[in-house]
């Protein structure tokens, strides 16, 4: 399997990765690679500030399309600080929870629509 | 202006009352009379600035009169009065964090401002790198919230360093005049609720008004957890709701008499904090475990 490196700094153009808009650009790049069966190193070099708004878009959104298992296989976080790792763990935990809830809600909505 | 305006329930209620009184005016001359005011916490310049900005949109002119010399001095030092033709004074003791207005696309400028104003003051106690990072991240979460949830074009900010408090603290206030938390939460839940309840809902773990494929419901909770450990404080005022988590981690939520057409978030950080925030075990566990 091929592998690419996505440098967040290069995409964001700053050491501050905070907006959901920029997070979405990272998501789109990772998504494109994963769709083409290419492994990704997400590189945090020179990134000093991260927010959950950015990470929810960049990483959390991946759970809308990919399972934990697929992401473990294809994604690696590199040059990341300990405190950012702790933050990302909270984001991925939250994303799993969010999409599990969303599936339940979507199923209920579907059921209601079908009953009508 | 009332006698005392602090970063508390009464102070925010007063500012909300003022905002309400002048809202919607056009082509008027608005005078802010400080003759009765003997105490104005400088970080609240962000709220006053937002009020004045909405007045400027209505092509009103503004004047500040009878300001006592101590308050005037600090409003010159933090460059608030500069926006209204006032003079700029040097800040020898470096206790002010300048009043600024940023557009939603100016995150990099906002970062430079925080670096310069908040984190590199010589007279401040030396903060650990991690504490600086946590403070920066908390502020940026609020900045982003103002833009995404408030759908606001401008964000107003100002801070103040209080070295005489024990432990020394920084107050930092961020204001937007966009959609209120109440209207976002009510629209999402599709039911009526008081503003203070809506804020309470929004700061509760897992709750988010976001839908679609991007998860939410984390930023404010991480800030709350950080401030709990840091023994800091947070106050949120949006529409006619006031919500606070104080340094003892007690929660206080209440209705205010008038509606503030936007959201104010005041963060108070304890900057003499030696807490390490992440434990070795926590990181070891993560390194050994799949993050996904």
Task: Provide the fold topology.
The complex is a heterodimer of chains A (116) and B (292).
Chain A (H helix, E strand, L loop, with lengths): L2 E5 H5 L3 E2 L2 H16 L3 E5 L5 E2 L1 H7 L9 H7 E4 L3 H34 L1
Parallel strand pairs in A: 1-3, 2-4, 3-5
Helix pairs in contact in A: 2-3
Chain B lengths: L3 E2 L3 H14 L6 E5 L5 E2 L4 H13 L3 E5 L3 H9 L18 E8 L3 H11 L11 H20 L5 E9 L6 E8 L4 H9 L5 H8 L16 H12 L2 E13 L5 E20 L9 H9 L4
Parallel strand pairs in B: 1-3, 2-4
Antiparallel strand pairs in B: 5-6, 6-7, 7-9, 8-9
Helix pairs in contact in B: 1-2, 5-8, 6-7
How would you characterize the overall build of this protein?
The complex is a heterodimer of chains A (116) and B (292). Chain A has helices spanning 8-12, 20-35, 52-58, 68-74, 82-115, and strands at 3-7, 16-17, 39-43, 49-50, 75-78. With 116 residues, chain A is of the alpha/beta class. Chain A has a 3-stranded parallel sheet with strand order 1-3-5. Chain A has a two-stranded parallel ribbon with strand order 2-4. Chain B has a single domain, classed as Histidine kinase-like ATPase, C-terminal domain (Heat Shock Protein 90). Chain B has 9 helices and 9 strands. In chain B, a hairpin with a 5-residue loop joins strand 8 (233-245) and strand 9. In chain B, helix 1 runs parallel beside helix 2 (45-57), helix 5 (129-148) runs antiparallel to helix 8 (219-230) and helix 6 (181-189) crosses helix 7 (195-202). The model of chain B has no long low-confidence stretch (mean pLDDT 89). The chains are: A alpha/beta (116), B alpha/beta (292). At the A-B interface, strand 4, helix 3, helix 4 and helix 5 of A face helix 4, helix 5 and helix 9 of B.
